[in-house]
Specification:
The structure holds 2 protein chains of 2 kinds. Chain A is an all-beta fold. Chain A is built from no helices and 11 strands. In chain A, strands 2, 4, 5, 6, 9, 10 and 11 form a 7-stranded mixed beta sheet that branches. A 4-stranded antiparallel beta sheet of chain A has the order 1-3-8-7, with no helix packed on it. Chain A is globular. Chain B is mainly β. In chain B, a hairpin with a 4-residue loop joins β7 and β8. Chain B is globular and about 40 Å long. Classes of the chains: A mainly beta, B mainly beta. The interface between A and B is medium-sized, with 24 and 23 residues.
Chain lengths: 114, 113
């Protein structure tokens, strides 16, 4: 089946530094990828929609200068959390839709900012 | 305002029983409704999709119903097993290309042996 590979699985970084998260579609082309954030015991909240070759669309309240999204190819989308702060600590998940059925999700990245 | 509600945050049942999870929504008109399983520290895994013109869908021990009049979906796991313990998420799909899923908060199911 279709797979989205997400790396890293977890990362700890110092406050003020930047962290890049990668999502690759392994056996299909993803024109669009979606980035979610999930806090403990909360729903997945859509942060942004990433489109290959064009600018990402951000949800209301999500700072585009803080969460930089690049979707340079049909198989790779990256999310960079810039100048990370402890409140950015969360579980970040990407997804794409390989066909007409369900969406495929990455395994998630646990970000801890200390 | 738009809302998706999964009625229970947690559901505890005994092995062998049927688990029934509920998803209600307001002010949405989804073309599809999807159910996912999420294990701790992992991304969601697709289980079933049901279209707005379908009443019921089955896959092995799973059954989903969709009532667009009541704006409700029910998700059943029959003959439940401890391995079914996880969080189950319902998600609305408006059916337009390039649009994201909208998720409920999830119901955490615990099946005891």
């Amino acid at each position: 089946g279709a797979v989205v590979s997400q790396h890293p699985s977890w990362v700890i970084c110092k406050s003020g530094t930047s962290v890049k998260i990668e999502c690759r579609s392994l056996d299909f082309q993803a024109t669009t990828m979606f980035w979610y954030r999930q806090f403990p015991k909360q729903s997945l909240m859509l942060m942004a929609t990433s489109n290959e070759g064009s600018k990402a669309t951000y949800e209301q309240g999500v700072e585009k200068d803080k969460f930089l999204i690049n979707h340079a190819s049909l198989t790779l989308s990256t999310l960079t959390v810039t100048s990370a702060h402890p409140e950015d600590s969360s579980f970040y998940i990407c997804s794409a839709r390989p066909g007409l059925n369900g969406y495929t999700f990455g395994s998630g990245t646990r970000l801890t900012v200390v | 305002s738009q809302k998706i509600e999964q009625n229970s945050e947690a559901l505890n049942i005994q092995e062998g029983k049927t688990a029934t999870l509920t998803c209600n929504y307001t002010n949405y008109s989804p073309a599809y409704l999807q159910w996912y399983r999420q294990d701790p520290g992992r991304g969601p895994v697709f289980l079933l999709l049901i279209r707005e013109n379908e009443k019921e869908k089955r896959k092995e021990r799973l059954k989903v119903t969709f009532d667009t009049t009541l704006k409700q979906s029910l998700f059943h796991i029959t003959a439940s097993q401890p391995a079914d313990s996880a969080t189950y998420l319902c998600a609305l799909d408006e059916g337009q290309a390039g649009t994201a899923l909208i998720f409920g908060k999830g119901t955490t199911l615990s099946v005891s042996s």
